[in-house]
Amino acid sequence: MVVTARQLLIASPSTPPWPGASIFNMNVSPLPKPDRARSTAMQAMCERSRCASRCEQSARRQGEKGAGSLKAIVWTAILAAVVYVGFKVTPLLINEYEFQDGIQTIARMASVNRPTPDKIRQSVLQEAAKDELLIAPEDIHIEAAGGNIRISADYSAVVDLKVYQWTLNFHPTASNNALF
Hints:
The chain is of the alpha+beta class. Helices cover 52% and strands 16% of the residues.
């Protein structure tokens, strides 16, 4: 395939494809210059149409104004409420876990040492005082039979949430079986 000079000129991206064109006079265009008045009128019309579309968009969004920020406020309030409740409830749950661990230790030691139920009850009350729990002696139930010990306690804790008093009921239980 043979390429002519004219085809090279037309295919060349650096030289315009009209007769008499060269790289020395590239800023001279063979196309007529647009009328200045006509181009100004076109710009004005374009600006009016942009303004009109902006006005239409604004009118469509009129009902949406502030919806995004209201949604953010609501979700922030919900998140703050969850954090506040967690802040109030978590210490009670930690105390309950520590008390559960303490009575499990008491049950293990009781199956080896075989103390009386009253001594076990006193140990459980000391553990409750250490974990800052208000438990009455009659709320502690001890079952001892043949070296098997089962300790259970029932107590409640009230969480003050400023707008609601939430009562949490706990029922920790521990047991240990004798080795022989």
